[in-house]
Amino acid sequence: MNIQWYPGHMTKAKRQMQEDLKLIDLIIELVDARVPLSSRNPDIDQLGQNKSRLILLNKADLADERQNEAWKEYFQSKGFYVVKVDSRSGSGMKMIQNVIQEACKEKIERDRRRGIKNRPIRAMVAGIPNVGKSTFINTFAGKACAKTGNKPGVTKGKQWIRLNKNVELLDTPGILWPKFEDQLVGIRLACVGSIKDDILNIEELALWLLEKLKKDYPGALEKRYGISEEGTPLETLEAIARARGCLKRGEELDYVKTSGLIFDDFRGGKIGRITLEWAGQQENN
Ligand SMILES: Nc1nc2c(ncn2[C@@H]2O[C@H](COP(=O)(O)OP(=O)(O)OP(=O)(O)O)[C@@H](O)[C@H]2O)c(=O)[nH]1
Ligand SMILES: [Mg+2]
């Protein structure tokens, strides 16, 4: 399967982010909990040197809870602070305030030693497209936030959102790109809906997902569609088509329609809480 994906403005966005990073203490990096490595940008660790780092496993509500825990440990072992969140419901938000203070304790201490009082922590939200940056900012900042306007002495036009007296958020999220040269990364991102459907072959993608689900989450398809999971991925796709009456004129099975239905269900969490990339098991992914 060949996923062609040419994001525009990539260099420009990276340069913009490099500029923005000069203004901040902390990077809040959102990853998709269902594909925590594939949804990261390979440059961010290098770009983010010398910054405090917080990884949010976003869309944790759609991912396998056992894997959420495993990924949390994985990233913690690499030196990141980590919080599992559901930005839509707001679950996990309360914890973040405390974790931010903890992640920036060196900066707070440095300020204290220099006699600087109450300088807020400045944070930036970063992540690949569709990972939930806007949803997170809206939920986290909530109604209580106020835009603090342009700050004198700082690059013109930058808006800061004051979350409370301790934290300010740069209001333009840093948009990054995943490692789209890697086919499997592309496939996983397409499955979770981070790459537009119309640039890939949805039937091939559905067959990949069905095989994956049967291997890693046996019984999930059976439960959702009342079908047997025996047989090839194609046979499973056909069984789902029949179970859901996805037919073209003349009783022919409609593979495209069936594939679309499977992805709607998968992305909406209706097949269960599923993680497509398991921590510490590269060979299984
Ligand atoms: N279930 C679930 N859905 C989420 C969560 N966070 C975001 N979403 C959904 O994911 C989709 C993308 O969210 P956005 O906030 O627009 O993502 P973004 O990163 O700002 O996207 P771009 O601006 O395109 O880069 C929306 O449909 C959100 O409702 C979450 O924690 N759980
Ligand atoms: Mg957005």
Automatic annotation (TrEMBL):
Classification via InterPro entries: G_CP_dom, GTP-bd, GTP-bd_ortho_bundle_sf, GTP-bd_ribosome_bgen, GTPase_MTG1, P-loop_NTPase
Family annotation (Pfam families): MMR_HSR1
Main subcellular localisation: cytoplasm
Keywords, in A-Z order: Cytoplasm, GTP-binding, Nucleotide-binding
Annotated ranges, domain CP-type G: 10-178
Subcellular locations according to the entry: Cytoplasm
Gene3D superfamilies: 1.10.1580.10, P-loop containing nucleotide triphosphate hydrolases
UniProt feature coiled coil, ranges: none
Alphabetical list of SUPFAM superfamilies matching this protein: P-loop containing nucleoside triphosphate hydrolases
Family: Belongs to the TRAFAC class YlqF/YawG GTPase family. MTG1 subfamily.
Functional summary from the UniProt entry: Required for a late step of 50S ribosomal subunit assembly. Has GTPase activity.
NCBIfam families in UniProt: GTPase_YlqF
PANTHER family per UniProt: MITOCHONDRIAL RIBOSOME-ASSOCIATED GTPASE 1 (PTHR45782:SF4)
Protein name, entry field: Ribosome biogenesis GTPase A
Native organism: Blautia intestinihominis
Gene designation: ylqF
